[in-house]
């Protein structure tokens, strides 16, 4: 979340930590988020598109439509349990270097967000023996 009502969605593949950042230019209500999220999810290779774990925000009220369109079951975390999405929470912390709290995220185009994701995906990670998420993802 940036300044209300601006937000982006982050999709992080758990094993490789490969990240996609989805612009939400139409708003943060479920019916506004679902088409953007669905489009991004359909860009993921089917063999890697197994499940999606999300927090319990109202923006996922359309989770059944997302599952129907993508074939990906959506699991919702228990309330006040951010550790159930640890990889995503860590990635969101890294994103704060590019998207500071309080920023108006509507000023970032999808191309801007793709460039940020590219930087994150080509940043070596200790957890991968200093390989990048892009390298690990490509091996999947």
Automatic annotation (TrEMBL):
Pfam families membership:
rve (PF00665)
- Which PROSITE patterns does this entry report, sorted A to Z? INTEGRASE
Integrase catalytic domain sequence ranges: 1-140
The molecular function terms of the Gene Ontology recorded here are: nucleic acid binding; transposase activity
Annotated coiled-coil segments of the chain = none
Gene Ontology BP annotations = DNA integration; transposition
Domain of life here?
Bacteria
Per the record, what is one GO cellular component? cytosol
Which NCBIfam families does the record match to this protein? transpos_IS30 (NF033563)
Q: What is this protein called?
A: Integrase catalytic domain-containing protein
């Amino acid at each position: 979340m940036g300044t209300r009502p601006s937000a982006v969605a982050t999709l992080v593949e758990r094993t490789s930590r490969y990240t996609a950042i989805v612009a939400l230019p139409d708003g943060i209500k479920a019916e506004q988020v679902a088409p953007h999220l669905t489009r991004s999810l359909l860009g993921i290779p089917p063999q890697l598109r197994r499940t999606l774990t999300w927090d319990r925000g109202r923006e996922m009220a359309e989770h059944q439509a997302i599952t129907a369109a993508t074939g990906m079951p959506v699991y919702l975390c228990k309330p006040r349990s951010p550790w159930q999405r640890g990889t995503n929470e860590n990635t969101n912390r890294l994103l704060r270097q590019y998207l500071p709290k309080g920023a108006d995220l509507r000023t970032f185009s999808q191309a801007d967000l793709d460039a940020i994701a590219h930087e994150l995906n080509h940043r070596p990670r200790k957890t991968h023996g200093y390989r990048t998420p892009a390298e690990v993802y490509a091996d999947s």
